[in-house]
Amino acid sequence: QVQLVESGGGLVQPGGSLRLSCAAHGIIFSFYDMAWYRQAPGKERELVATITNGATTKYVDSVKGRFTISRDNAKNTVYMQMNSLKSEDTAVYYCHIEGLSYWGQGTQVTVSS
Q1: What pLDDT digit, counting tens, does each position of 57-86 carry?
Q2: CA distances from 79 to 30, 75, 96, 98 (A)
Q3: What region does 74 belong to: left with phi over 0, alpha with psi -120 to 50, or beta?
């Protein structure tokens, strides 16, 4: 059974940092491209960052230079380091296996003073 478990969200002040983790179970993790999406209240879910099985990364323009996606195939885990957080980064963050219909439960990130 495929399962994605996100963690690492929380409340942080503007300018602060968080590191999200997503542990994948039930798949050959190294085969797949992985992604982080986010959904803010009243908005559609948007793609934030992707990392291919070869570790090539892409980012939405609004997070370039602030967020870093990475993966550890030995741990079946994808990460996202988020620095210089802004209030507009507030959302539920989800990890996703690209090309498959599996989502994690999401982790809430709130950026507020």
Answers
A1: 999 999 999 999 999 999 999 999 999 999
A2: 14, 11, 12, 15
A3: alpha
